[in-house]
Amino acid sequence: MKKSLLVFLQLFLSLFFMSCELFFESGVNFDDETFEKEYKLWKEPDLSDYSFIYSNQDTSFGYIRLKITVSEGIGSSEALDEYSTHYDKIKSIDDVFEYIKERKSELESLRDNNKRYEFSMTFDETYHYPLKIEINTEHRYHSFGNTAGYYYETITVSDFLDSSKP
C-alpha cells in the first residue's frame, strides 16, 4: 500500500511540474490599455507646477530617492540621499511615464524563454500619475529545479503636491 501511494505521488508530482512548464508563457505582461488611458488623463489638465518624491528600488542599482520639483513646466531633481546623486533621468511625471515605457521595451527585447516579467500598476485616482509600479520576474522551473536569476523593481511616486492649487 505504501509503495503504491509513493508511486502515485511521484507520478502526480511529475505530471504537475511538467504541466507547469507546458503552460508557461514567457515575455512581458503589461496592461498597455490602462497605461495609455492613465497617461492621457494625466496630460489633460496640463499641470506645470507640482512636486513629488520619486523612489526606485531594484535588484540591479539599489535604491534611488529624489525630490522632483516642476515649476512653469521645467523640472529639477534633488537627491534625498548620497546614493541618488548620480541619477538625473527623472524630472517630471512625464519622465516617470517615459521610464516605465522604456523598461517595458528593454524587457521585451531580452527574449528570455525562461522568464515572464509582470508589471503591476497602480495610478492616482485624481491626477492619474503612477503611484506604484512593480516589475517582477516569474520563472519557468526546469525539471532539475534550478532557475536563472531574479529581478524586481518598484517605482513609487509619493507626496505629490499640485502647486497651482492654493
Structure description:
- The protein is built from three helices and seven strands.
- The protein is α+β, with helices and mostly antiparallel strands and 166 residues long.
- The chain has one domain.
How is this structure best summarized?
With 166 residues, the chain is α+β, with helices and mostly antiparallel strands. It has three helices and seven strands, in the order αβαβββαβββ.
Task: List the SSEs and their pairings.
Elements: H1 2-22, E1 27-29, H2 32-43, E2 50-58, E3 62-71, E4 74-79, H3 93-110, E5 115-123, E6 130-139, E7 152-162
Parallel strand pairs: 1-5
Antiparallel strand pairs: 2-3, 2-7, 3-4, 5-6, 6-7
Task: Write down the domain tally.
Answer: 1
Strand order of the largest sheet: 1-5-6-7-2-3-4
Q: How would a crystallographer describe the biggest sheet?
A: 7 strands, mixed
Structural class: alpha+beta
- List how many beta strands DSSP finds: 7
Strand content: 25-35%
Counting DSSP H or I runs of 4 or more residues, the number of helices is: 3
Low-pLDDT residue intervals, each spanning 5 or more residues: 17-24
Distance between the termini: 78 Å
Estimate the helix proportion, in percent.
Answer: 25-40%
Shape: elongated
Average pLDDT figure: 81
* H/E element order: HEHEEEHEEE
Oligomer: single chain
Rg result: 21 Å
